[in-house]
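User: Fold both of these, please.

Assistant: Here is the first one.
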Amino acid sequence: MPPESVPGAPAPHPLRPAASLILVASRPAVRVLWVRRSEANPFLGGFHSFPGGRLAKEDGSPGGDAAAREPASVRCAVRETFEETGLLIGLGGRPPAPEALPDLRRRLLEGKAEFWPEIERLGMTLEPSTFRPAGRWITPHFGSARFDTMFFLHETAVAAAPDVWPGELDAAEWIEPDRALSLWSEDRVGLAMPTLHALRVIAEGTHDLARRLKDVPEANGKPSRFVDVRAAITMVPLRTETIAPASHTNAIVIGDGDAVVVDPGTADEEELKTLFEVVDAATAGGGSVKAVLLTHRHKDHVLGADAVRKRYGAPVWAHGLAGDLVRLDRELRDGERIEIGGRHPRVIRAIFAPGHSRSHVAFFEETSRTLCAGDLVSTLGTVVIDPPDGAMSDYLVSLERIRTLGATALIPGHGPPSRGVDHALRGLIEHRRMRESRVLDALEDGPLAVEALREEVYRDTPGAPAALAARTLEAHLEKLLSEGRIRREGRSVALTPAAGAAPPREEPPR
């Protein structure tokens, strides 16, 4: 049964039509144009991909089937490539003077002009025959932003220099496919799945390229059920009984000889089938599953632990406090390391990170500097802190501790992976400080009942579930109580005199 048809499952997030260009230059050697997404980008921040983006009205109607969508998608890919890299691709007619392009591009990005009317005014026309369909990729079922992206191949003799303006992207360059794959294997770059697939295909030769790029099911509109975040580190989103907006929990398979499995969060046989396929591929050379690692005791992270243990004879390791929900074969110690042999040897350090749960452990893969964050981080939004198992003071300390690791890739408990690790962690810390400030500001005029305080503190997020907001507010109140900044008055909350007093005024030097 596909995820969308699971009884009682939330509706899948709508797909947004998009398009992308695979640009291949043949001289002096075969090279591909790739771009690096800004680390602040909420979707695959810091990953390398190909230029492209969402369809705009001026591109034309997205149509129904792929054939009907193709003309608008080509126009979209050409427009987005110019906006992102400054390159005019696949256009006939006399191009404008180079000095005129920055002004055109600036007006487009500022919303003061539209691309296609400007191109027509310049006397240029699109040459559709220079583009060949090269696949249709659909974002896996793990995020709130999902794209239905049509890819097009455009081959050229000369590699024109791209010009990236900081914003959505950080950089763009032409690169030999073998070199790009080496950087991937060395853990120096992150690759979106279509990019990784295309580079592997192009590295094998440019013969019959458009057809070969479509020779996998995922390039024909079948959403991938896993994401290769690094070599030998694969994220497998599994549909679980979790909290919206999440619908999946990210299991992680680390290793390409021996392996470990992190957070198998479902007992559903169909979902586990996908996980088992990834595990079997990782250990195909004769390796074994060394352990099942659990980030914490919540059921959407542990329900499949016994199934993995039974299938592979693998022990289950976690914080001792997770033992009330699943039988543990070993209690982890803070800071201990787990070594995994294979083509890409991996070393995983267990780091106690309470806050979301007292049992929470983050797993840091040291060779690739990849953080398996569990529910310390969600790339779909903020994390619920629910006392007594959750504690806001502990959570903030854990975030600060994790920041010192210098991780360069992040796999959250829920949502897409990211290479903008420090940006994500700083954002969570700043969000909690902002929410705490709203609590203190709301109490400036006097005590408030807890319910009234919740309404005021979460006035900026009217769609937030009241029950979850109430529990997270309680976590903030417990922190402020422990610091002596507020006090309870029956069912109301008030500032303490010290918290409400104005800071002492500095006397001028005499």
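And the second sequence with its predicted structure:
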Amino acid sequence: MKSKKDLRFETIAIRRGQEPDPSTGAVSVPVFQTSTFQQDAVGKPRGYEYSRTGNPTRAALETSLAALEGGVFGLAFASGVAAISAVLELLKPGDHIVAGDDLYGGTYRLFEQVYGKWGLKTTYVRSDDLQAFRRALRPQTRLIWLETPTNPLLKICDIRAVAAVARRAGVRCAVDNTFASPYFQRPLDLGADIVVHSTTKYLAGHSDIIGGAVVTSDRPAYEAMKFHQNAAGAVPAPWDCWLVLRGIKTLAVRMREHEHTALYLARFLQKHPRVARVYYPGLPSDPGYRLAKKQMSGFGGMISVELAGGPKAVHKFFSRLKLFILAESLGGVESLVCYPPEMTHGSLPKDERLRRGIKDNLVRLSVGLENREDLLEDLKIALG
């Protein structure tokens, strides 16, 4: 029998943090739907005091998250942006961030409109340009922020190389791993210090909860973020934690199927005359293909495309879709489509959005688990 350290991903996803309940033998982690816990005497709790500070169901999820990413410490939050905020709380006014320029619009909003107000400065560089990260460093830099694959252009950042730049500069490197999931990519293994997830997406996988997570092996960072988690209180409810735990159990099989269908559809889209460009790192023609093969074990379920014909073609495409649902978010069992310029990246000013390559004809697909032939037929009809 392998030791816990040697267990493979699928076993870790089902067993770590999800052992049978010691008091009852229940094989599913109980939902501890309680706000507070009895104490044996003043100053003598039985491990838990108040569910904002800690809850057994949330603790099980945090253990599971840390194991999936190969980290020591996991923290669960009420949303992905709450998790990002916890990382930013490691900084102080006047500190500087170097961030990849292709990133989730909500992250940009936090950097510029929330933390920018109290003096946090951010420099954005090309997400796939290693030298640009190095050149952007300042004496005040305290954090390098990456997404890979990026949102929405699916660029691939060299985590190992950027983490090495951060390490030499004495700053932390944080990676938003939401698009890849820990099944396809483990940034801590590549040298990153902190990993962030929107658990809303692939980890939960069923479009039924909002949540976030941070994983690290950096004890000082963990302790500071744990303090923030309790002090600010943006924690997930026990039921939401349980739903993420249930989703994690099937993460491996879901991610394999997401990728299988996404690659099939990307190959079709690449050849279609009404598609001007396809962004998918699993295509050999994609600029990030070689690096993705090197640092990922798979390419994921997200595809972005630029349609020929501009915004009118986009809206016509949306009106003809029957299976792809026009909606925000991603990573669920159902296939979704969104329009980044007005939806996920609507918080970016238009000139900034265009400068980053998010054109008015860009469409983002989250490929679900429906039959791939049905999805292909839906795209064929919508493209005309």
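The chain has two domains: 4-249, 252-383.
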